[in-house]
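Q: What structure does this chain adopt?
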Amino acid sequence: MKSIVKILSFALLASTSASLFAADAAPAADKQAGPNPGKQATAVRKAAFTLIANSFKPLGDAAQGKSEYNQTDIQKRANRIVMLSEFLDTAFPEASNLGEPDTKAKADIWTNKADFDKKLKDFQEHAAALAKVTATEKTASDAFKEAFGNLAKDCKGCHESYKAK
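A:
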């Protein structure tokens, strides 16, 4: 079941991204008749965050000793988070400030854009640092736990500031 969810989530991300990029490449006249760019960006970020969460939870379980630290799996998941975090750079255009029920992204993202962008950059840097650690650590070492903790703090900080409950 989990494999099916992952495949479907990746398919959603891929198809949404393809639609978004196709819409960006379309002539201006075609864009008016095409899909809503705000809704497309929202779909991309929802898919990216779903896939990030699917990789994040097993990392947290390993950091807390709730599951075995399998370096191959842990490294794969950390690398996946790095790759998915790159989708977020363009997933918050002003047009995607749609409010609930379309998104849980608070309007503060766009009114405090510099702070939001810094939090996103920190998340991406800490994801890369975690991936680097997982390339060498064979156990749930203190270095792994620290790197994971830094990434978890980024998630929590952004959720507290910019995600509606």
